[in-house]
């Protein structure tokens, strides 16, 4: 009987307190993805949560020395080896946290190529929700990840709120985002081997700019 390997999801939480709303949001997004995969695809899922709070000293040491301690190396390998990533940061000074940025600065800018990433953030007020679009989405686009359409922001007032006629409640947004990640994992994610083959073909098959310009030239 053919067995299918479990899908690996890694949730990166940059919350600083324990417990934290950032970790809670990461857990709920992972569970929503797991439930959708179990219901629609009958797929088993392995979920690992990387708490950046526990790696803060190792991250700082790596930035200074250039050598990752064992715990940080393990976390980086988990993220780059996952089938899908959930990335959640609290909002500080209208952007993601410095700890969150420092961790992803340590990941090679091709290591997430083609990997589906669900982005999310937490904050005290809804006014900071645009951090998902002006900060987090460009960060993962630079890392060549496939950033899912639905990003989830949870303000303090969203926890336990049912939503209204103009906006969905937080549980609904979590379910929709989890469904998108589940669909990406089963229908649109390439294996690591196929990603490497594409890269070997020359920068993801992109046509050099000079060649594109040559194609626009009008003959005599």
From TrEMBL:
Residues 185-204 are annotated as: Disordered. PANTHER family: FMN REDUCTASE (NADPH). This is Oxidoreductase. InterPro entries: CE1759_FMN_reduct, Flavoprotein-like_sf, FMN_Rdtase-like_dom, NAD(P)H-dep_FMN_reductase. The keyword Flavoprotein applies. One of its GO terms (molecular function) is oxidoreductase activity. It comes from Streptomyces nitrosporeus. Keywords: Flavoprotein, FMN, Oxidoreductase. The lineage of its organism: Bacteria, Bacillati, Actinomycetota, Actinomycetes, Kitasatosporales. Residues 8-159 form the NADPH-dependent FMN reductase-like domain. It holds the Pfam family FMN_red.
């Amino acid at each position: 009987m053919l067995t299918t390997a479990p899908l690996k999801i890694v949730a990166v939480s940059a919350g600083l307190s324990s417990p934290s709303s950032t970790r809670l949001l990461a857990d709920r997004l992972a569970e929503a993805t797991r439930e959708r995969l179990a219901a629609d695809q009958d797929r088993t899922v392995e979920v690992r949560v990387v708490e950046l709070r526990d790696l803060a000293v190792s991250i700082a040491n790596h930035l200074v020395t250039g050598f990752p301690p064992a715990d940080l190396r393990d976390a980086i390998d988990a993220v780059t080896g996952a089938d899908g990533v959930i990335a959640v940061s609290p909002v500080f000074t209208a952007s993601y946290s410095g700890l969150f940025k420092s961790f992803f600065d340590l990941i090679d800018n091709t290591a997430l190529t083609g990997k589906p990433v669900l982005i999310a953030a937490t904050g005290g007020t809804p006014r900071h929700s645009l951090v998902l679009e002006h900060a987090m989405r460009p960060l993962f686009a630079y890392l060549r990840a496939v950033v899912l359409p639905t990003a989830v922001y949870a303000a303090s007032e969203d926890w336990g709120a049912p939503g209204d006629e103009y906006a969905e409640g937080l549980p609904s947004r979590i379910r929709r985002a989890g469904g998108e990640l589940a669909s990406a994992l089963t229908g649109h994610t390439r294996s690591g081997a196929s990603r490497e083959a594409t890269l070997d073909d020359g920068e993801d098959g992109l046509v050099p700019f000079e060649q594109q310009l040559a194609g626009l030239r009008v003959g005599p």
